[in-house]
Design brief:
Largest sheet of chain A: 2 strands, antiparallel
CATH class of chain A: Alpha Beta
Number of helices of chain A: 2
Order of helices and strands of chain A: EHEEHE
CATH architecture of chain B: Orthogonal Bundle
Strand order of the largest sheet of chain B: 1-2-3-9-6-4
Number of strands of chain B: 13
Oligomer: heterodimer
Strand order of the largest sheet of chain A: 1-4
Distance between the termini of chain A: 12 Å
CATH topology of chain A: Alpha-Beta Plaits
Radius of gyration of chain B: 21 Å
Helix content of chain B: 40-55%
Strand content of chain B: 5-15%
Number of strands of chain A: 4
Distance between the termini of chain B: 66 Å
Number of domains of chain A: 1
CATH class of chain B: Mainly Alpha
CATH architecture of chain A: 2-Layer Sandwich
Strand content of chain A: 15-25%
Number of domains of chain B: 1
Chain lengths: 74, 392
């Protein structure tokens, strides 16, 4: 599974970082940096929590092109 | 002629329902994923999952055909931040988004906390006060007017202008008609505003600078100024007063917050979920679609009932129970998706600072006498909340 951020939508609320501090963080400019793009199954769970909490739906967690879509679901 | 099913004749704007909406919300929620409100000729959803889907899918459920409930208001709000989709919406929102981001808000922390501390110290000395006028309104207007940078001579008018703006997005009832002359006064002032009227460094100045620089059209500046001001007042005021009423009722929860102020942010989220300051948001469907088996036709409006969706037990077990440990991070009180409240960071900062100030000085709250609800076509909150506090 891949974690990606729509930088146009992202406004730097930062709730995502609370859910998955190991996967992404707001830098000194207040911009979101995805630290881990390709996720293992445990990371996917946290990434989905982060995506869910984003108030503007700027985060997405989606299967990689060659991946089984059900991979990474808890 | 076939009647649209499933449908209801419920009058959501009836005063009795505004006072006590939850039985009606349950009825709508249990009836269907979306219910046709025959009085208003629009759909309504009271379910959390459906609400999130509608708010997130702006391509199907547009804001561009207006999010107010009358043609007159939708015409006058056309092209403004609440009535646009990407890409124009992003351009308008981008004007203030960096000023409302956590980094910018951090630098405001001391200023807002000092404000809260000062007001609370005075009120603790008084012991009895109206939590609406003397606490929440006084505090919120002071902070917002300062941040927006409007001149002193209009600060006393902001509350009335804000309340009128919110009533005007609803149906054409008495509240709507009473709001018109108030909004006209606001509109007259707005059309005369020039950049130098707004305090240097203020958010209002940022808006007008953006227009002067061509980042947005010049004619967008007044409506952006009024949208963000109106959206910043009653909403935050209602969150603060709603929370005070809840902590008066749930004294054990207040004791826990006094013991551990780190619990305050989650408690405020639960308060926003439980009594949502903004009760609904509407969109128009642009293509025939299906919501969990309910056919929504192109051109039909759907009202997302935020306050109702926040009480959906499919999402929140025991939803009608106020629980400060719930931490409902995916609540809908601030909306969701592209139009998710741009100012929610500021709202949370203001509320957190106020409740930190109160937690340090107030042993408990008692509501005395008759609290009175403020009825508004869009928002839910108190008009008078007479409170007696026991100092620590």
């Amino acid at each position: 599974m891949r974690l990606s951020v729509d930088q146009v939508r992202c406004e730097g609320f930062g709730y995502c970082e609370n859910e998955a501090p190991d996967l992404l963080h707001l830098d000194d400019e207040g911009d979101l940096v995805v630290d881990v793009e390709v996720l293992d199954s445990a990371q996917s769970v946290r990434a989905q929590a982060a995506a869910r909490v984003c108030p503007v739906a700027a985060l997405s967690v989606a299967p990689e092109a060659n991946e089984d879509p059900s991979a990474g679901r808890a | 002629m076939t009647t649209i099913q499933p449908s209801s004749e419920l009058d959501l704007f009836d005063d009795a329902l505004l006072l006590e909406p939850y039985a009606a919300f349950t009825e709508l929620r249990e009836t269907a994923p979306a219910v046709w409100l025959s009085r208003y000729g629009m759909w309504a959803t009271a379910r959390h999952g459906v609400a999130r889907t509608v708010l997130n899918d702006w391509q199907t459920f547009t804001s561009e055909k207006g999010t107010a409930l009358t043609d007159a208001m939708n015409e006058s709000l056309a092209g403004t931040v609440l009535s646009t989709d990407p890409p124009l919406h992003e351009k308008l929102r981008a004007v203030l988004s960096s000023r409302l981001a956590p980094k910018a808000l951090r630098s405001l922390g001391d200023y807002v906390q000092n404000h809260a501390d000062k007001i609370v110290e005075e009120l603790v000395a008084a012991e009895r006060f109206d939590a609406v006028a003397e606490l929440a309104e006084r505090y919120t207007v002071a902070v917002v007017a300062e941040l927006i940078g409007v001149p002193e001579d209009v600060r006393g008018k902001l509350l009335g202008w804000g309340e009128a703006s919110l009533n005007l997005v609803g149906i054409e009832n008495d509240r709507y008609r009473a709001a018109f002359p108030v909004a006209t006064e606001m509109f007259t002032w707005l059309t005369g505003v020039v950049t130098s009227d707004l305090a240097e460094g203020s958010m209002g100045r940022t808006i007008y600078n953006a227009a002067d620089a061509g980042a947005i059209e010049r004619h967008s500046a007044p409506s952006l100024l009024s949208a963000y001001t109106a959206a910043a007042l009653d909403t935050t005021i209602n969150l603060i007063t709603g929370s005070i009423a809840l902590f008066a009722e749930h004294a054990e929860s207040w004791q826990r917050l006094r013991q551990d102020q780190a619990l305050i942010p989650a408690a405020l989220l639960e308060s926003a979920r439980y009594e949502s300051p903004v009760q609904w948001a509407s969109r128009v469907c642009v293509v025939d679609t299906d919501i969990e088996g309910v056919r929504i036709a192109e051109g039909q409006r759907i009202a997302v009932l935020l306050g109702a969706a926040n009480r959906d037990s499919r999402q929140y077990p025991d939803a009608d129970h106020f629980d400060i440990d719930r931490n409902p991070v995916d609540h809908l009180a601030f909306g969701y998706g592209t139009h998710g409240c741009a100012g929610q960071g500021l709202a949370r900062l203001e509320a957190t600072c106020m409740f930190k100030a109160l937690a340090a000085r107030v042993e408990c709250f008692e509501v005395e006498g008759q609290p009175v609800r403020r009825l508004n076509n869009l928002t839910r909150g108190w008009d008078k909340l007479p409170v007696r506090i026991v100092p620590t």
